[in-house]
Amino acid sequence: MHCHPFSKVISSLLFLTGLFFLNFTSRVIFSPLLPIIEGEFGLGHAAAGSFFLLISGGYFFSILSSGIVSARINHINTIALSTISSGITLIALSHCSTLSGMRIGLFTLGLSAGLYLPSGLASIKQLVNPAYLARGMAVHELAPNLGFVAAPVLADLMLRSCSWQLGLMWLGICMAGAGLFYGIAGRGGYERGKALDILTSQRILSRPEFWLLVLLFSLAICASLGIYAMLPLFLVSEQGMTPERASYFLAFSRIAALMMPLVAGWYGDRVGNRMIMAFVLLIAGLCTVLLGVISSFPWLVLLVILQPVFAVCFFPSGFAVLSALGSEGEGALAVSLCIPAAFLLGGGVFPVLIGVIGDHASIGVGFMITGTAMMAGAIFSFFVCCEKK
pTM, whole model, 2 decimals? Predict the structure, then answer.
C-alpha cells in the first residue's frame, strides 16, 4: 500500500488539499464577515461568537458519525458527499434572512463539513509512506492556512462587488462542483472506514494519551481557529479598524504562516513530534497573551503575524501522533473520537468564552486568559507516549 515514493502521490495529495481548502474556507469565511453580520442582526460579542459554536456543534456530531458513513460508501465517496453537501448548505445560507435560519444553516454546515476530516486523513495514510507521514500531513495542512488568508480577501471582495450572501452562493457552487469531480476522479480512499463500536472505542478511550491529545488539540485549535474567529471583532471594536481594513490585516497576518506546516512536518520527522507540539503551544500561547496586553500599533502588527506562524505548526505533528494511536486501522477512529471534542472546545466554546469576556470586560482580556491556558498545556505534550520516535 505504501510502495510509491512521495513524488508519485503528490498530485493526489494536492487534490485532497484543495478539497480541504474549500471545506475549511466555507467555515472560517464567517470570521471576517462577523462584524457586518453582528451589525445587521444587532448581536453582542457572545451571540456573534456563538456562530462558531453552532458550526462546531454540527462538526462534533458529524465527525463522530463519519465512520458509519465511510464504512458503507468508502472514503472517496464520503469526501465527495461532504464537499457537495457543504456547497449546497452554503447556497441555502445565502438565502437566509432570519437569525434562526442562519443558526440552523450554520449547524448544518458543520454537519456537512465534519464528514471530510477522518476520511481525508485516512486517504493520506493510504497514499503516503509511513516514513513521510508527517510531511504528507504537512502538505494537507497547507489548506487551512491558505483558507485563513483567502477568507478575509473573499469576504472583502463579496462586500465590494455584490453582497456577502451572493458571495456565499458562488462559494457553495464551487464546492458542489469540486465534490462531484472528486467523486469521479479521486484516488487513494477506496477502503471503507471503521464505524464506531463499543469495544474499539473503549480501547482508545481508555488510553491516557488519547485524553491528553484531546486537551492539546483543543488548545491548538483555539490558538489557530478560535483566536482567528474573534480577531476581526477585536480589531474593529477595540482597535478602531474598519471591517475592510481588518479583513486585509487578517489575511496579511496569515501569509507568513503559509509554509510553516511544511517546516514543522520536516522537523517533526527529525526531532520528534512531542517536542514540536510543546514548543508551539508555549510560544503561541505567549503571543496570544501579549496580543491582549499590547495596543501599540507596530507591536500589535508583529504579534498578529507571529501568533499564527507558531500556532499552525502544531497540526502536522499532532495528526501524525493521533493517526498512529492504537493498532492498525484504528487511526481514523482515534481522529473521529478526538477531533470532535477538540474542535467543539477550541473552535466553539473558546470563541464564545472570549465573546462573553468581551461583553463584560474586553476581548483582549479573553485573549490573555486563553493564551495562559495554551502555555500551561504545553507541559502535557511531553506525556504523550504514543509516537514511535
Answer: 0.79
